[in-house]
Specification:
The structure is a single chain. By secondary structure, the chain is α/β, with parallel strands linked by helices. It folds into three domains: 144 residues, Rossmann fold (3-Layer(aba) Sandwich), CATH 3.40.50.720; 136 residues, no CATH class; 66 residues, Orthogonal Bundle (Rna Polymerase Sigma Factor, Chain: A), CATH 1.10.1740. The protein contains 16 helices and eleven strands. The strands form two sheets. It has a seven-stranded parallel sheet with strand order 4-3-2-1-5-6-7, sandwiched between helices. The structure holds magnesium ion. Magnesium ion binds next to α7. The site of magnesium ion (MG) has 4 residues, from α7.
Length: 380
């Protein structure tokens, strides 16, 4: 029985995790649930899953939620509340699926408390990958990827020798604008971008998959998670999203992990790894799939990959700056304040103005994040 704390239980990953929990009853118990502000959903989930403690991040909902919970369920709030959950003595695995920077400190707290950390929030490894992985080594805890691409690579690397790996190949759907020309990209709208071809995700990540910043963030995550230089993390466009990523070995042989696109696979593997467990997900019928195709990403049309490679190579506070500028530019685009190409133009400008700090602590990273948000907001 694995006791799991789920930070971010009402979002897209959170909901998929609850489906996995339903499949794995008897093997997985949710001991802590946290949401940002969705009181009703968290209340419902608490009655269904009976965790020992819950947290609502936004403290203005704390009183409301507290009054509606069954007796005996602890109710925390704020960043302290997330840290409280992440360090619960009962917890074996802490799954962090909170959008934004709020997951960073709970993730580090979980590592320091000796918990296995399962990461779905990109910000954790993008902003603080070096610190997180160093702390994980120091405390002897595992960091497991929830993202489908990183889960694929993790599975392909199991039992392999690091020196045998030539490079990682992240697959990218290419987003909804893969076939648009550079000129056409200037006029696309948020509504166009939200029609994602294969994955059904939250809106921020959907825009990120349209700019390819999502893949850029994943490149940086992969670099830290698997301990390779940026030059050994490649991207290949694969619109069908069946091959979730690949590892190329020095002998030229390539291992890939395949399945229908469904987040329940990588989430479940975090819980059952290194074993497998049957579930209610339909099996993939390869004879019914469309032809699988692969192409080189168009670097001219989608500068996000170049910017991410730069940020990841520079390291220090630069990836946090790239991430923060993008997080400001995306809602500006969704609200119609800026055009689509201005997302990466803003990110590039903010990056070019940043003086990178190489830090061993979180503070300069948080400060760089704050600075980049202000710079980006001025530009948008
Ligand atoms: Mg992904």
């Amino acid at each position: 029985m694995k006791n799991v704390v789920l930070l971010g239980c009402t979002g897209s990953i959170g909901q998929s995790t609850l489906k996995v929990a339903a499949d794995l009853r008897g093997q997985m118990r949710l001991v802590g649930l946290a949401a940002r502000s969705s009181v009703e959903a968290l209340e419902r989930q608490t009655h269904e899953w009976k965790p020992k403690a819950v947290a609502i991040y936004d403290d203005k909902y704390h009183g409301t939620l507290k009054g509606r919970l069954p007796s005996g369920v602890k109710c925390h709030t704020g960043l302290d509340g997330l840290v409280e959950l992440a360090t619960m003595p009962e917890a074996d695995i802490v799954l962090v699926a909170i959008v934004g920077t709020a997951g960073l400190q709970p993730a580090l707290a979980a590592i320091r408390a000796g918990k296995t950390l399962a990461i779905a929030s990109k910000e954790i490894l993008v902003m603080a990958g070096e610190i997180v992985m160093r702390e994980a080594r120091k405390h002897g805890v595992k960091v497991l990827p929830v993202d489908s691409e990183h889960s694929a690579i993790f599975q392909c690397l199991e039992g392999r020798h690091p020196e045998d790996v030539r490079r990682l190949l992240l697959t990218a759907s290419g987003g909804p604008f893969r076939k648009k020309t550079k000129a056409e990209l200037a006029d696309v709208t948020a509504a166009d971008a939200l029609r994602h071809p294969t994955w059904n995700m939250g809106s921020k990540i959907t825009i990120d998959s349209a700019t390819l910043f999502n893949k850029g963030l994943e490149m940086i995550e992969a670099r830290w998670l698997f301990g390779l230089g940026m030059d050994r993390v490649g991207v290949v466009v694969h619109p069908q999203s069946i091959v979730h990523s690949m590892v190329e070995f020095v002998d030229g042989s390539v291992l890939a992990q395949l399945s229908a696109p469904d987040m329940r696979y990588p989430i479940q593997y975090v819980i059952t790894h290194p074993r497998r467990q049957s579930n209610t997900i339909p099996f993939t019928d390869f004879t019914k799939l469309p032809p699988l195709t692969f192409e080189t990403p168009d670097a001219d049309k989608f500068p996000a990959l170049r910017l991410a490679r730069e940020a990841g190579t520079t390291g220090g506070t630069m990836p946090a700056v790239m991430n923060a500028a993008n997080e400001v530019a995306v809602p500006a685009f969704m609200n119609g304040k800026i055009r689509f190409p201005r997302i990466w133009e803003t990110v590039e400008k903010v990056m070019s103005r940043h003086q990178t700090v190489h830090a061993r602590t979180l503070e300069p990273i948080i400060e760089a994040d704050r600075w980049a948000r202000e710079e980006a907001a001025r530009l948008c």
